[in-house]
């Protein structure tokens, strides 16, 4: 009995050590090279993470089959690869090109070292009514329009994120039927070949701060300000940071 107990204890210790080691491989530093896939998983339907659930994707490419991408047509939860409920954590995942919506966060969520290649409509959509969602590390490339779409309320905090050949890294919804005063923060972002880091609605009380970042296409591409609406199309009101709706500091446009 004693030897059996010792064996079980040893196995539990090994499993715990392996789990800790696996977690330690999650790289949330700024990376500017797209990671190699460790394999491919194609899903017939979106995978849902329950409230508080964590998933380590093992750096596999996760995608939909058949494809749910319909160019820039607005999709829903059913078109996503992952649907995250409140408090869910998704780590070490590459989102493939054959989906319309990537990741949908129905409540606050955390995305650690998540990557998107050939973004279709949106890479990630945040729908929480309040609270903070986090994007730590990771990156996206080849997005005709938005990468991170903020449709709900609260805050989206982005750190150490890389974007290449994208439209907007972030957009606060310009024409959602229910609008919010949204907050967003960006720390140590690098964008190359993109249009703008953040598009926000000044008339709705949005605020964004962008700091310690590299924007290689010029300082005028840090913020775009809009007049948000609940129907129809929003209008752009400014193409530069105003220090209030959009505050910036330590932004480099070359040599980074």
Describe the structure.
This protein is mainly β and 256 residues long. It has one helix and 19 strands. It has a single domain, classed as Single-stranded right-handed beta-helix, Pectin lyase-like (Pectate Lyase C-like), CATH 2.160.20.10.
Quick synopsis:
This protein is mostly beta strands.
Question: Which features characterize this protein?
Answer:
Pectate Lyase C-like, 1 helix, Pectin_lyase_fold/virulence, 19 strands, eight-stranded parallel barrel, Pectate_lyase_PlyH/PlyE-like
Helix fraction, binned, reads under 10%
Fraction in beta strands = over 45%
| CATH fold-level assignment | Pectate Lyase C-like
| Overall pLDDT score | 90
- How many helical stretches? 1
Radius of gyration: 19 Å
Give the tally of β-strands: 19
Terminal Cα span: 62 Å
CATH superfamily: Single-stranded right-handed beta-helix, Pectin lyase-like
Order of helices and strands, N to C? HEEEEEEEEEEEEEEEEEEE
> Strand arrangement, largest sheet?
7-9-11-13-16-14-12-10
Coarse shape = globular
CATH architecture: 3 Solenoid
- Runs in which pLDDT lies below 50 for 5 or more consecutive residues are 1-24
The major sheet is characterized as:
8 strands, parallel, barrel
The count of domains is 1
Helix/strand/pairing category = mainly beta
CATH level-1 class: Mainly Beta
């Amino acid at each position: 009995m004693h030897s059996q107990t010792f064996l079980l204890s040893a196995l539990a210790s090994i499993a715990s050590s392996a789990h800790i080691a696996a977690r330690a491989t999650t790289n949330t530093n700024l990376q500017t090279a797209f990671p190699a896939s460790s394999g491919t998983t194609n899903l017939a339907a979106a995978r849902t993470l329950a409230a508080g659930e964590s998933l380590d994707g093992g750096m596999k490419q996760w995608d939909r089959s058949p494809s749910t991408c319909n160019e820039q047509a607005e999709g829903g939860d059913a078109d996503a690869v992952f649907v995250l409920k409140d408090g869910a954590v998704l780590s070490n995942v590459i989102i493939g090109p054959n989906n319309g919506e990537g990741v949908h966060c129905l409540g606050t969520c955390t995305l650690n070292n998540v990557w998107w290649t050939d973004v279709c409509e949106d890479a990630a959509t945040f729908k929480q009514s309040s609270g903070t969602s986090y994007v730590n590390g990771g990156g996206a490339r080849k997005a005709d329009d938005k990468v991170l779409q903020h449709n709900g309320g609260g805050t989206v905090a982005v750190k150490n994120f890389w974007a290449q050949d994208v439209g907007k890294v972030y957009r606060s919804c310009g024409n959602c039927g229910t609008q919010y005063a949204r907050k967003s923060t960006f720390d140590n972002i690098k964008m190359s070949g993109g249009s703008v880091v953040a598009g926000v609605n000044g008339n709705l009380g949005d605020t964004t701060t962008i700091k310690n970042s590299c924007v290689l296409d010029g300082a005028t591409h840090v913020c775009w300000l809009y007049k948000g609406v609940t129907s129809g199309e929003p209008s752009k009101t400014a193409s530069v940071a105003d220090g209030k709706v959009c505050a910036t500091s330590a932004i480099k446009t070359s040599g980074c």
